[in-house]
Amino acid sequence: MTGTAPPTSPRPAESGWYNTKLCDMYTVVGMVVAVGRGTRYALAAALLALLTALSPVLAAPPTAGGLATPTGIPLPPPPAAPIAPTLSKASTAPNAPTASTAPALPQATASSTIPVGSLPWPVHGPFAIGAHFHDFQNYSGVPYFHGGTDVRTQAGSVVYTPVAGRVTVSKYRIDAARVPLHFQYQRWPFADRADTDARYVEAAVTDDQGRTWMFRHLDGKSIPSDLLRRSRAGEPIPAGEPLGTIVAWHQPVLPETATYHHLHLEVLASDGTYLNPARLMAPLPDTDPPVIHGIWFVRNEEETTFPATDGRPRVSGDVDVVAAITDRMPNSRYILSPYLVRTRLMALSGSDAREILPWTEVVRFDRLPVTGDRTQLATVVYKERLRIDGKPLLSNGEMGPRFFLLTLTNGDRRAGYAARRSLPTRSLRDGIYRFDLEAADLAGNVASASQEFEVRNR
């Protein structure tokens, strides 16, 4: 789905679940305010200190006392006899279900003839994933999807193209602002190796499937002369051709303190769709499941959470369900967003549970739900901030430590996304319900959580 202007059709009547499934498209801009660089570093340092203090709690699995949250607010424990599924968390058998009432999470398929996971990564030697292409970012207060995979390695590492195709070498700059909200690239030909703007040189290779592979943050002085000649002549290059080396970066991304030298790898399909580069590369070892820090309920398009009594929020009207979910990979402290999230809704009556909404994939990031400007839907899929008992909890997508709030009721990957979509509790009978959540990474490691809540409209 691409981001479009909101239609002018009226909102559907609140009778039945189509209010959740078929609503108008609106894009909202949150309330995060851009601050100066020094202030942002101070805020990042404060958040790092907070997460460091809470790390024994955040790293711990859910217990009978509830789920840990960054604000210390516990979630209630699951029912004594839960019906929610328990899926395997071992990467040796991705997505292998245990005895469960829910189907296993299906494997994604590639969007091309190249098999999933068949291509070599563009750097040799050790590297880490510093950011996923679907991560929420908000440098300078501008919310957007990251759009590429950050391959974190040493400055000076040689970058090789994993695909053959026509090559173009460019300089570029980012034009982004909150008002009016936009995030765009401006490019012009790279003249010669002396004509370089540190950190912003790109080599792009268009393969025989029409996909364009963009390799950013190359050292302009390292671009091979023959590559520049082929770029000017429009000639193709073979797979495995060196493109240059990674330029030195200027700052870390917390909680890692090493300088963030990295390659930004971005892949566009021929129709302009952003594809997940990690889906096309050889799989990386990963045994760490995502972490679900908390689940909260707010009025649609608002920020203040409904108050809870004995850990169970009482809600009414049109409701957004928001979860804090993070992930990371072994031997790395970089904080990432989950690859896949799915949810379901259960009605509780005594010891019985009845499914109201079946398991639905909210996101599966094989591709982004937009083309063009990546600010589209960024604050619809992600939530910029919550206010919990008067205290703010913010998504952080810049210098780190990164943190991600996802809105789970603004749509799904098949039907699309819109800010006005919600959980219309007036279509439910008053009573007790349970919201079930599963989050998975690319390796098939799964985390699950549940939150009971009370509907009271009458």
Model description:
With 458 residues, this protein is mainly β. It has 2 domains: 261 residues, no CATH class; 153 residues, Glucose Permease (Domain IIA). It is built from 5 helices and 28 strands. Strands 1, 4, 6, 7, 8, 9, 10, 12, 13 and 20 form a 10-stranded antiparallel β-sheet that branches. Strand 6 and strand 7 form a beta hairpin. The longest helix has 22 residues. It is elongated, with a radius of gyration of 22 Å. The N terminus is likely disordered.
Provide tags for this entry.
ten-stranded antiparallel β-sheet; Glucose Permease (Domain IIA); 458 residues; 5 helices; mainly beta; six-stranded mixed β-sheet; 2 domains; 33% strand
Brief synopsis:
The protein has helices spanning 18-21, 37-58, 225-233, 277-280, 378-381, and strands at 128-131, 136-137, 144-145, 149-152, 158-160, 165-177, 182-189, 201-206, 212-216, 236-237, 242-245, 262-268, 273-275, 291-299, 308-309, 312-315, 318-326, 340-349, 352-364, 367-371, 385-388, 391-394, 405-407, 411-412, 416-417, 423-424, 431-440, 446-455. The chain has 458 residues and is mainly β. The strands form seven sheets. Strands 1, 4, 6, 7, 8, 9, 10, 12, 13 and 20 form a ten-stranded antiparallel beta sheet that branches.
Distance between the termini: 37 Å
- Oligomeric state of the chains in view: single chain
**Please, how many helices?**
5
For the sheet with most strands, the description reads: 10 strands, antiparallel
Radius of gyration: 22 Å
Total domain units: 2
Q: Return residue spans where pLDDT drops below 50 for at least 5 consecutive residues.
A: 1-44, 47-113
What percent of residues adopt helix (DSSP H or I)?
A: under 10%
**Into which percentage range does the β-strand content fall?**
25-35%
Query: If you average the pLDDT, what whole number results?
Result: 80
Query: Can you tell me the overall shape?
Result: elongated
Number of strands: 28
Structural class: mainly beta
